[in-house]
From TrEMBL, chains A, B:
Enzyme Commission number(s): 3.1.21.10
Name of encoding gene: recU
Presence of the UniProt keyword Transcription regulation in the record: no
Residues binding Mg(2+), per UniProt: 86, 88, 101, 120
Catalytic activity: Endonucleolytic cleavage at a junction such as a reciprocal single-stranded crossover between two homologous DNA duplexes (Holliday junction)
Cofactors named for this entry: Mg(2+)
Native source organism of the sequence: Trichococcus pasteurii
Function: Endonuclease that resolves Holliday junction intermediates in genetic recombination. Cleaves mobile four-strand junctions by introducing symmetrical nicks in paired strands. Promotes annealing of linear ssDNA with homologous dsDNA. Required for DNA repair, homologous recombination and chromosome segregation.
Protein name: Holliday junction resolvase RecU
Single GO molecular function: magnesium ion binding
Family: Belongs to the RecU family.
Length: 204, 204
């Protein structure tokens, strides 16, 4: 939404954000890390500190042709990206199976459902059936705010869309029903703290 | 071990196996599936029947050069295999995090520890700390027998080797401490049944 003030100056959403959020932005934002890099860095911290074992799955690639040069490593000369049948991240935390997907949006008011794929929804539903803990980490990059949202909400929105429901999840809904993930130094994104909070809510 | 009878006829280990094992061999062996294919096929069955969600992780590949031909899929033109930092399989089963590796050996009396890698051992130890269920599936291909072995045994053997212990796990030890996995039609390898048996033993 491009809104100008009467004096012609541009409206800056950031200046209307809560002070704490602004302070966080000042300290940590614009270091050029993608959400994926932030999660990988947090996972390394969780791993080395013995808090959890969570890894990003490698991108599935169909290898067609490989060269084996003498005295050096095999070189893949022809290969194609394949579609994954799962989410990107899974692992184990205090006996719990965790499974999640991470998405960023530049949108300021909602995350379009087009960021997700049917196979991810199907996979998350299957994991829930097996009592796995599934969620999505969503970054609103303009505000540099990250939320953990229980995937049951995503599944509801997804299925409503099939019945002509709205095609995005509003930020306001995520603020109400998700858990904001705190930015820090190490781990950069303490999303396991948000997982703990999500589990407390579920138990209540 | 090549042993001939006094009459010069070759010794066939298979003819000295228990009858049940022979019958299984007769019905199911030599269909040319690798252990990996058998596990993948079993995982598909578990997935479609809603029994568990377990996937093989893709091989990690470092992509260096990609071509984007017009009107067709991206072609990877240069890439290299990277070493994984985990085991090959993980997933969720009745609320449990499962994590395992699969290995085949042509050896008739033991599986050499050289089949395993340090990063796999480290990963399994970390998963155990998080209360994950970790094990190895070992196929003795000559006999077409598959065993599930709790990875705590593998870790013990691994650490003894560092203190000049033996460099392989004897089949006799695996027969005593592992659980033989039954071959069937669908799932081809019902290793979750062996997981159930392993958990029963642990509880006792």
């Amino acid at each position: 939404m491009a809104v100008n003030y009467p004096n012609g100056k541009k409206f800056h959403a950031e200046s209307h954000m809560p002070k704490t959020a602004k302070r966080k932005d000042f300290v940590y934002s614009n270091r050029g890390m993608t959400l994926e890099e932030e999660i990988n860095s947090s996972n390394e911290h969780y791993l080395s500190s013995g808090k959890a074992v969570i890894h990003k799955k490698p991108t599935p690639i169909q290898v067609v042709k490989v060269d084996y040069p003498k005295r050096s490593a095999a070189v893949i000369k022809e290969a194609y990206y394949r579609q994954s049948s799962t989410t990107d991240y899974n692992g184990v935390y205090k006996g719990l199976y965790l499974d999640f997907e991470a998405k960023e949006t530049k949108n300021k008011t909602a995350i379009p459902l087009s960021n997700f794929h049917e196979h991810q929804i199907i996979h998350m539903k299957r994991c829930i059936q097996q009592q796995g803990i599934t969620f999505v980490l969503i970054r609103f990059s303009v505000f540099n705010r990250v939320f953990l949202l229980n995937s049951s909400y995503l599944i509801d929105f997804w299925e409503n869309t099939l019945n002509n429901g709205r095609k995005s999840i509003p930020l306001a809904f995520i603020e109400d029903n998700g858990i904001e993930v705190a930015y820090g130094f190490n781990p950069r994104l303490d999303y396991l703290d948000a997982v703990d909070k999500m589990l407390e809510r579920t138990i209540k």
